[in-house]
Amino acid sequence: MLINVAQSEECRIAVVEDGQLEELYIERASAENYVGNIYKGKIVNLEPSIQAAFVDFGVGHNGFLHISDVEPQYFRQGGYDPDKPIQPPNHRRSNNRDENKSNGRGPGGRPRRKPRPGDRPRIKPPIQEIFKRGDEVLVQVIKEGIGNKGPTLSTYISIPGRYLVLMPALGRVGVSRKIEDDDDRRRLRKILTELQPPKGLGFIVRTAGMERSKEELQRDLSYLLRLWRVIVRRIKKNETPVDIYEESDMIIRTIRDIFSEDVDAIYIDEEKAFNRASEFLKFVMPNFEDRIHLYDGNDPLFHKYRLDEEIATISRRTVPVGNGGSIVIDTTEALVAIDVNSGSFRTDDSAEETAYQMNMAAAKEIARQLRLRDLGGVIVNDFIDMRKERNRRSVERCLRDAMERDRARTKILRTSPFGLIEMTRQRIRPSLKRSVFKDCPCCEGRAVVKSAESMSIEVVRMLMLAREDSRVHRVTIKVNDEVAAYLNNKKRRILAELEEEGNMDIQIRSSETVFPEHLAMECYDDNERVIEMKS
Fold first, then answer.
1. Which among 502, 501, 520 has a CA at the least distance from the CA of 511?
2. Dihedral of the CA atoms 143, 149, 154, 159 (nearest 10)?
């Protein structure tokens, strides 16, 4: 793990595995990052049509709170109280009295499961019945605002530790779904139950806690409980809107979430950041304190490991995938489209085997690029067509396996009849491209500009408009060099005809410094006064 904070304006963290960049995180000091922060906010507007509320949480723009992110405690009269344990929600009763007798069984004689703390009710009331304007609400930012959209909020509070996650609304202990072995799940749940967490608070064991001892989990539990007590005091003490809890900086956050026994070393190139990270590692993982190092080499840290070259390629549309193949990544407003091309890649003169081997390599690279670019939303992968069903299933498994190390939630569908694999990836913050780049002022993000011929046609069209105004005596056109050359060489005869028909003088002025689509026309009368042309 390489941490570059030599420049105070930007923090970069790279995870390198077998010499290849596998994960990249970039955070600018100028960028406001709210994800994970907890705020005491105020409802400023309700939108029943979309079942959402807009919350002022004190950052200058309102957050978006959907009904699906409102936890059951708010359904009660009086709203949220951090001191009250979460009560089991009320379930609807059947109209059939025989089915509702207190015999412990539900409809059809099936055993009735007792409601557990934190269970969501089957039907949520409308949001306008839960909140009114001016109501206070405790919210956590779960997704950064993108474009004109404000941050997405949730009342399901989640505070991560190293091995556990505190979830007050859960009301019970649990184990991460990523831990799939039943024996491990039972063992961890038993340990967590023996630690006797306070009633009404929920805790989840993270994947990082799978091999941890009871003492290590106890230390993490104690830390989270101390933190929660501080949060509760702030909730009671401060008036809304106010910042209640802020996530750690990116260095501490990344070490907490990513560092494991598999990480051989952490290198940090700035002393203050190194001291802060060392102190954190010593507190939460003292056995691995010797794996963190202060980098004091002469070459910049990322340059030494040749990461700057690889980072520069992340923004490119086409990504080479060994042996002549490539993937092409196009990002639109609605989705990400990824196309797999075999290029010059060939195997054994078999089209099926060529497609299969290329798709397998592309699946691994697609998963890597999604992580590095932090692309989210709907993603459509257009793999090379394969006839054999077992090959298609093998590519699907390869893509799923490659996405397992991704911390963002993903869902991958089976191959469609058109040979597409559709998937979704959790979008928490703007992609790396949006964070580092801005839309080109020439093409405004279209990635294309009009040709010199197209611009010349527009110029002639505007001159035809000026020709119809008898006041116009002289016209000045300012365009890009390439457009001016096209006009003077290919449109000279048309320009001469317009001058004669309109009894006017046309002057074409070229410039290297203007955009390819730049077009400025000024019209003057006999006295050199500017004439405003109607468009």
1. 520
2. 30
pLDDT of residue 119: 53
Give tens-digit pLDDT for 498-527.
Answer: 999 999 999 999 998 999 999 999 999 988
Q: What is the pLDDT of residues 413-423, one digit of tens each?
A: 999 988 899 99
DSSP code of residue 354: H
Claim to verify: residue 164 and residue 209 sit in the same structural domain = yes
pTM of the predicted model as reported, rounded to 2 decimal places? 0.73
pLDDT confidence of residue 109: 45
What contacts 21, CB < 8 A, 6 or more positions away? 14, 15, 307, 310, 311, 372
Full residue range of the structural domain in which residue 325 is found:
317-436
Measure CA 330 to chain center.
Answer: 16
Quick one: 25 and 52 in the same domain?
no
Rounded to whole angstroms, how far apart are CA atoms 323 and 362? 11
Give the pLDDT mean for 302-326: 87
Residues 338 and 298 in one domain: no
Whether residues 349 and 417 fall in one domain? yes
**What is the rounded distance in angstroms from the CA atom of residue 476 to the CA atom of residue 508?**
6
Instruction: Report how many domains make up the chain.
Output: 4
Phi-psi region of 503 (alpha: psi -120 to 50; beta: other; left: phi over 0): left
